[in-house]
Structure formats: C-alpha cells, structure tokens
Amino acid sequence: MMIIIMSTMITLSSNNWISMWIGLEINMMSFIPLILSEVNKSSSEAAMIYFLTQSVSSMLLMAMILTTMCKYLIWGETINSIISFSIFIKLGVAPFHMWMPKMMNKMSWMKCSLLMTWQKIAPMYMLSNMASTAINYLAIILSIIVGSVGGLNQTSLRKMMAYSSINHLGWMLAISKSMNLWMIYLLIYSSMISSMCYIFFYYKINFINQLSVNNMNNTEKVGMFIMMMSMGGLPPFIGFLPKWIVIQSLINENEILIILIMIMFSLITLMYYLRIMTNMFLSFNLMIKWSFNHYNYFMIMIMTINLSLPMIMIMDIM
C-alpha cells in the first residue's frame, strides 16, 4: 500500500513523460501483489488480466514517448492520439473497458474500491496535461453510453459497480482539462464508492438477489438507498454536486450536445441503481423497527453526508 501511494505521488510530481511512466510501472507492480494476497484461482486470473492490459498500454505509451524524442519527427496529432489511447486502456475507458468488469468480478470489494478510486488518479493527471482532441470527445460519449447500458443486464453487483465506474469516468473526462474540477469529482465519487463497497463487504453481498435475503433493518435500508441515489446523481444528494460542476463547466464551453447525451444516459444508470434497491425494499423484513446500534451510526453519518448538498447550496448563495 505504501508503494502504491508513493508511485502515484511520483507520477503527480513529475514534469516529464519518462518519470510519469516510471510511476505508473511501480504502481502496477505494487497493485498486482495486493490482488494476489488472497490465494485462489480468481485472484490469479484477475492479476493476469490486470498485468496484460497495463503492460500493453505501458508499451504503447513508452513507444510514443520515444518517438517524440526523435528530433526529426514533429509532434503530431497521431502520436498525441495514441498516447491518449494508452491512458484510456489504463483507466478502462470505453471502448477499452472490457477488462475492468471481468477483473472486478474476480476481486474482493476492498480491492475493487481501490481500483475504482486511487488507481485513476495518475492516468487522469496525465490526461489533464494533454491537449484534448476529437478522440477525447468520442471516449466521453462511449464511456457514458457503455457505462449506462452495460450495467442493465447484470446480476453481479461488482460488475454493476464497474460499469458505474466507467460511466463516472466519462463525466470526469469531460472536465479533464481542469485539474481542480476533476479532483473534486474524484474525491466525492471516491467517498461514495468506498462507503458502498464497505457495506457490500460487511454484509458479504455480491449479487442482487442477496440483498433481499439479507435481513437489514430500516436504518440500513434507507442509508443504502440514499447512497445509491447519491451515486446516480439525484438532487438533493451530494452525488449531484460533481455532476452539476461538469454541466456548469460544459455550458460555459457551449458543449450542449454532450450535456444532453450525458443527462439522458445518467437516467439509465439511475434506473439500475433503483433496480438494486427495489429488490431490497419490497422484500419481507422481520425487523421492522428503526435500529441504532454501533454499525447504524456509520449509516446515519453516511446519510447526513449525502444529504449535505442543500447546506452547500445555501452557503454558496450566502
């Protein structure tokens, strides 16, 4: 874990492509042993998928960096695009996303949350240092469409969270030019996804049908519902704030068509979050009372944080 944190810091503090590449390589070589900490067939398969995809993208990135160093070649649009492609593979942006749901399905919830949050920082930083091209816009639209539609026919919650992550990546790519904005987005998204993964890990939930079997009390049910709605970006929950920032940023740049696509497909993601929750809410529950044990205080804290958007708005107006 220390090396994972350090490798990301190396990439963030670098001022040249080679140092950034070194940071990414150290990060990959430290994340693989973390995946393999559980000795079973699934984890070794996940480690192999991660190693192969990251190696291909690293080779592509390194080849393009060396090409730009040749003084007889002019930095062209093609080289810029291929570097973007290599970073897209690392992030799991559509159409290079197929490895991510497959890999997440074979890992534990804690490792999944790390892959969806911390592992995005270094490649996103590299993208924000590059000029945006038409390929970036194509990647944004594809990520939003794939992330929305891909999660519809899934029963595995880990795969659903992977497609949700791809969708959120599309939103982050839309503001990748502004480092402050995508870092705010990633911070809020990380807090939401980490708490969701922790709850799924705590209850050992991996599939939708397990939610109705799990005998949760009303506090936990409402807490999970609020978190899911927050992840879908529904006002007045805190998850709406980063999406609001993206919409505001794109309106200033007159990117109306992309905003329209993003909002329309955001409704589809909200639909499959609701599908997760309806199963749980409509199931027969033995414990009908609101309960406040030591674990429920964590849920109440999460509910309070997710409902803090109106307070932020009031402070902003004042």
Automatic annotation (TrEMBL):
Its main location: mitochondrion. It is a multi-pass membrane protein. One of its GO terms (biological process) is mitochondrial electron transport, NADH to ubiquinone. It catalyses: a ubiquinone + NADH + 5 H(+)(in) = a ubiquinol + NAD(+) + 4 H(+)(out). GO terms for molecular function: NADH dehydrogenase (ubiquinone) activity. The chain crosses the membrane at residues 17-36, 48-75, 81-100, 134-152, 182-203, 223-244, 256-274, 294-315. Residues 14-269 form the NADH:quinone oxidoreductase/Mrp antiporter transmembrane domain. It is an enzyme of class 7 (translocase). It is found in: Mitochondrion inner membrane. The keyword Mitochondrion applies. GO terms for cellular component: mitochondrial inner membrane. Keywords: Electron transport, Membrane, Mitochondrion, Mitochondrion inner membrane, NAD, Respiratory chain, Translocase, Transmembrane, Transmembrane helix, Transport, Ubiquinone. Signal peptide: none annotated. Its EC number is 7.1.1.2. Belongs to the complex I subunit 2 family. Core subunit of the mitochondrial membrane respiratory chain NADH dehydrogenase (Complex I) which catalyzes electron transfer from NADH through the respiratory chain, using ubiquinone as an electron acceptor. Essential for the catalytic activity and assembly of complex I. This is NADH-ubiquinone oxidoreductase chain 2. The lineage of its organism: Eukaryota, Metazoa, Ecdysozoa, Arthropoda, Hexapoda.
